[in-house]
Amino acid sequence: MISLRASWMTILAVSFVCLWLESKVSASPVLLPANKEDDHSVVPVDAVNQNVTIEDFELGEPLNDEELSGNMSSKVPSGSLSGKWSNRIRDELLKKLAGGDIMTLDDNKNAVIDRNSLWPGAQVPYVISASYTPEQRRVLGYAISEFHSKTCIRFVPRTTQANYIYIRRDLNVGCWSYVGMNGNGPQDVSLPDYCVSYNYPGSVMHELMHAIGFQHEHQRPDQQYYITINYPNIRPDNRQFFNPMKSTEVNTLGLPYDIKSVMHYPSSFMANNPSIPTMMARNGELNLGNLKGFTQLDIQKINKLYSCYSG
């Protein structure tokens, strides 16, 4: 739901939730190695973990066929879900995000409405940080393989494309992404360690769905017919992350609301008191969203947005 080039120096840095996060704000830039062919000539470290080294900003090899096979034979530590969905979010960084894990531009566009924000030909060029472990690369490969096997979206290694995503481990400020292709060159998808989990690959799929153009399910314009929001259990400055979007801002694609969607946050999202839900389905269901992967409706929505099927 991101380019950290010079333009980022005007934004301060970011943090997440999507599932998730912790961060630290600083301010000095880090230069990429000169021999790396990449448009990220300067990387601000506003919100980057202070222990990050220059190697963390190097690009790795594209995911290989084995990693994209969909086989996660090696487990990756999954960490604590409570931490990913907790209130431990830096206030000053949250203000830079929309919906908790979406970075915005001044001219922020929603790909569901603005067709120019869709990736041409359903192909998303990507580069990836070199610092991911082999096990983490398998999780990333599994998430991407789910797009490849169930939709017409293809994540392809970047060659000379001007617009592409940069999948980054080094920005230890949470899971986040822009929505759709922003058209301004490389754009980051932040996936630090606790967002790349063997048990919960849906966190990666969630951010990649932002990157191809999707907003949060729980912020659909028709939200009120399917869920109720317990605003008293949400801090006033966080209530914006529960507000429904306008029908002029997002297109539901004519498909039903999906309380189990990988794009739906859980019932405990940003709760002042975690024992009390902030959201619940109108039928009383509290098990909202999921971190395992796509629902059938998620798949239908991707395929419809990108016109994967003719006729």
Automatic annotation (TrEMBL):
<dbReference type="GO" id="GO:0008270">
    <property type="term" value="F:zinc ion binding"/>
</dbReference>
<keyword id="KW-0645">Protease</keyword>
<keyword id="KW-0482">Metalloprotease</keyword>
<dbReference type="InterPro" id="IPR024079">
    <property type="entry name" value="MetalloPept_cat_dom_sf"/>
</dbReference>
<dbReference type="InterPro" id="IPR001506">
    <property type="entry name" value="Peptidase_M12A"/>
</dbReference>
<feature type="domain" description="Peptidase M12A">
    <location>
        <begin position="110"/>
        <end position="309"/>
    </location>
</feature>
<feature type="binding site">
    <location>
        <position position="206"/>
    </location>
    <ligand>
        <name>Zn(2+)</name>
    </ligand>
</feature>
<dbReference type="InterPro" id="IPR006026">
    <property type="entry name" value="Peptidase_Metallo"/>
</dbReference>
<dbReference type="GO" id="GO:0006508">
    <property type="term" value="P:proteolysis"/>
</dbReference>
<feature type="binding site">
    <location>
        <position position="216"/>
    </location>
    <ligand>
        <name>Zn(2+)</name>
    </ligand>
</feature>
<feature type="signal peptide">
    <location>
        <begin position="1"/>
        <end position="27"/>
    </location>
</feature>
<keyword id="KW-0862">Zinc</keyword>
<keyword id="KW-0378">Hydrolase</keyword>
<protein>
    <recommendedName>
        <fullName>Metalloendopeptidase</fullName>
        <ecNumber>3.4.24.-</ecNumber>
    </recommendedName>
</protein>
<keyword id="KW-0479">Metal-binding</keyword>
<dbReference type="Pfam" id="PF01400">
    <property type="entry name" value="Astacin"/>
</dbReference>
<dbReference type="InterPro" id="IPR034035">
    <property type="entry name" value="Astacin-like_dom"/>
</dbReference>
<feature type="binding site">
    <location>
        <position position="210"/>
    </location>
    <ligand>
        <name>Zn(2+)</name>
    </ligand>
</feature>
<dbReference type="GO" id="GO:0004222">
    <property type="term" value="F:metalloendopeptidase activity"/>
</dbReference>
<feature type="active site">
    <location>
        <position position="207"/>
    </location>
</feature>
<keyword id="KW-0732">Signal</keyword>
